[in-house]
């Protein structure tokens, strides 16, 4: 008998629902919130209120596009955390209520595991490549920057992580600093394609082991822009492509130096990336280039699976369901999760 898993994702500002049938994607609906652009970042209270408005129609659309009824569902996977607590509360509460109404189990999922397992979402008519275990995942987003060793869908080891800011935050702060808009990652990436990545130099931290640091790079950019603007108020407008290209290059250099080191230390040649920053064209090109150079098998998620989406939550939940995991109804969402 087939397993139909409903996934619910509400960790930040995107409300998403997806349906998988035995790991194959039937639907993946996302309602994005545009209001946050006016504030240069996500406003938690506005996000949670929008989730309340979106959750029912989004789930309804996901079921409709999948061509199934709620009674066909086997289990409901939902994001427990990490994320914005108010946003998580909406998704968790809805999953509980629907699970009770349908008398089916609910499965809590770590949002980060969803990003790590996104390559395992299967689609009809696609090649459906996915890494063999064990593999390394470079998890990069607005809130996280980690290198994770994945030994199975349920076994994770953090080999390195940021000691201060996430790389996605560095992209957003750069964009805000230069008055380019929000979210910063896609804007920086677009402008970087037109610029010279070697024109400007920014500080590159030297952190031992496999950990990252991005606060010094942001500070280096801040002082650089401040000093140059004092000489020429039009400096950013005249040089924004080269600034973005140079800044993006140093961030990617930092990420790749540690990933190469992790692959060398572990001997693992299966390498993936995940999270919002995995959509960055410069990073994707660099991962593939390093893979060819070092004999890695590299896996890049489709763009629709790089942002927060419920398909990745559903696949992570499906693995946990098949392993016999069930989540009690008294579970509470958590904004932070220390480990996997």
Structure description:
The protein has two domains: 4-127 and 305-322, Nucleotidyltransferase, domain 5; 135-303, ATPase, nucleotide binding domain (Nucleotidyltransferase, domain 5), CATH 3.30.420.40. The chain is 42% helix and 18% strand. The protein has nine helices and ten strands. The strands form two sheets. It has a five-stranded mixed beta sheet with strand order 3-2-1-4-5, sandwiched between helices. It has a five-stranded mixed beta sheet with strand order 8-7-6-9-10. Helix 2 (85-102) links the parallel strand 4 (75-81) and strand 5 (106-110). Helix 1 packs parallel to helix 2, helix 4 packs across helix 5 (184-192) and helix 4 (167-177) runs parallel beside helix 6. The mean pLDDT is 93.
Low-confidence stretches: none
- Biggest sheet strand line-up: 3-2-1-4-5
The number of domains = 2
Count of β-strands:
10
CATH superfamily of the largest domain: ATPase, nucleotide binding domain
Query: What letter string, H or E per element, gives the SSE order?
Result: EEEHEHEHEEEHHHHEHEH
Biggest pleated sheet: 5 strands, mixed
């Amino acid at each position: 008998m087939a397993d139909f898993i409903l996934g619910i994702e509400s960790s930040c500002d995107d409300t998403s629902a997806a349906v998988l049938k035995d790991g194959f994607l039937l639907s993946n609906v996302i309602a994005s919130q545009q209001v946050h652009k006016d504030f240069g970042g996500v406003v938690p209270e506005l996000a949670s209120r929008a989730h309340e408005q979106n959750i029912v129609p989004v789930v309804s659309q996901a079921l409709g596009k999948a061509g199934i009824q709620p009674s066909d569902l086997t289990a409901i996977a939902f994001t427990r955390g990490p994320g914005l607590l108010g946003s998580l509360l909406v998704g968790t509460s809805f999953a509980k209520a629907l699970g009770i109404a349908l008398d089916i189990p609910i499965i809590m999922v770590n949002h980060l595991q969803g990003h790590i397992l996104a390559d395992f979402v299967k689609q009809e008519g696609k090649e459906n490549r996915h890494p063999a275990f064990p593999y390394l995942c470079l998890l990069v987003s607005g809130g996280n920057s980690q290198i994770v060793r994945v030994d199975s869908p349920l076994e994770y080891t953090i080999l390195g992580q940021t000691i201060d800011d996430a790389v996605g935050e560095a992209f957003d702060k750069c964009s805000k600093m230069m008055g380019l808009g929000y979210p910063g990652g896609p804007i920086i990436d677009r402008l970087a394609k037109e610029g010279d990545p070697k024109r400007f130099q920014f500080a590159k931290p030297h952190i031992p082991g496999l950990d990252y640091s991005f606060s010094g790079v942001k500070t280096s950019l801040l002082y650089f822009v401040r000093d140059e603007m004092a000489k020429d108020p039009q400096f950013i407008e005249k040089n924004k492509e080269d600034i973005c290209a140079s800044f993006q290059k140093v961030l990617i250099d930092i990420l790749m130096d540690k990933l190469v080191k992790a692959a060398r230390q572990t001997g693992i040649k299966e390498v993936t990336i995940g999270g919002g920053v995995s959509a960055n064209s410069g990073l994707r090109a660099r991962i593939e280039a390093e893979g060819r150079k070092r004999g890695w098998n590299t896996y890049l998620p489709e763009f629709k699976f790089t942002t927060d989406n419920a398909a990745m939550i559903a696949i992570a939940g499906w693995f946990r369901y098949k392993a016999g995991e069930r989540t009690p109804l008294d579970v509470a969402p958590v904004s932070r999760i220390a480990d996997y």
